[in-house]
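agent> call fold_tool(seq_1)
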Amino acid sequence: MSFYSVAAFIRDNYPEYFGYQTYPIADCVRIRKVAEEWGVFCNFYATPIVVDGVAFKNAEQVFQLMKFKDPEIIKRIWNGITANDKICHEVKRTVKSYEKAYRRPDWGSMILDALKFALMRKYEQCELFRTELERSRGRFIVEDQTTFPKAQPDCWGVKPAVDGVNFSGPNVLGRLLMELRDRGQLDYRLPDDALGYIKILQNVRKGEESRQ
């Protein structure tokens, strides 16, 4: 299994979210691209989130940075510098360049709790996100990976089933969003040092302010 695949993490640590689900296509809200309808459900949608004084571009940035402990790596990712010293404005690509060498060893046991944390901050701070979740009520939320080159959906999404009338897949992101919509909260438990990167970024921000 690929180092970057989260399937084993979900299976071993979050079995309640593991396995395929089926949803009638006609009854689904589809997450596809940021610029399309329901784009606010994408983690990459521009929804500024502030955590303890540190401003993030979106939920994905909050989530991805939680993979690391090393202060220098966190600073490099924050500044969009990859492991081979290239400038990259896509946090997921920047993070991927450091994962094999620097990802925290317990990431698999906290991955969904980290995502729940990011989604809760987005829910609390983004009115559009809350409004669109409410508008989706009564329908299933799925990450539609129909156009993805892989034959099967990854853990986050779904693809059309062979019957042509249903979506099928793990749909972990969609399931979390529906849980958030229906309950108004997501319960999570993070390691004591999970937000250590916030303190590191607070110091970065203070340094930037002192130079102004």
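agent> call fold_tool(seq_2)
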Amino acid sequence: MPNHTIATGECLTTVAKKYGLPWTKIWDHGSNAALRSKREDPNILHPGDKLFVPDKELDPQSCATGSRHSFKLLAGASKLRVRLRVRDAKGEMQNVSSKDFVVEFDKGEPVAGQTDGNGLVNVPIPIGATSGKIIVEELALEIPVDLGCINPLEEVSGAQGRLRALGYPVGPVDGIVGDLTRNATRAFQADHKLSVDGIIGPQTRAALKDSYGS
């Protein structure tokens, strides 16, 4: 089977569903070794990444005759992992900890939960959903999220997307480090007590991962 080129909004789970294969069957294939070494999270792939999709293989099952049987494809589930933070009266960033929330998706049923001590929302995403909204009624927060549109953190566009989602204006998420991106990076670094140089280096990326949740 030819390589599948990742498009904006796609992740490993959606590709697995498209081809009718478990995601592990695709991701663990030897032909994807180079991509595995490049991408830390299989469900955060970059548009243009090449993913080898193996052919389906027959998997014979023994069943009793004269009865009806059902089979389910376990394609795996993606999760929405977002850390919620707000500024307090002093302008300091604070985690939205232990707050009830509801996530409404464009497909499937709403999912209710509670943020953890770090303000993390961690819920399964219905297959086929492309957008959602996190609602924290107690704080009158409604946060729209585009699913499958965040790029890998090692890409500039991935850092830009996380900065934007965290409330730092980066301008276009275009993979270009311009003045807006440098200023947003400096503001983020100042808030997280990092060296303020406007450079998206290893420490800044680690802080972005911790703050965003992935």
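agent> summarizing second result for user.
Residues 77-149 form one domain. The chain has three domains: 3-52, 77-149, 150-214.
agent> awaiting next instruction.
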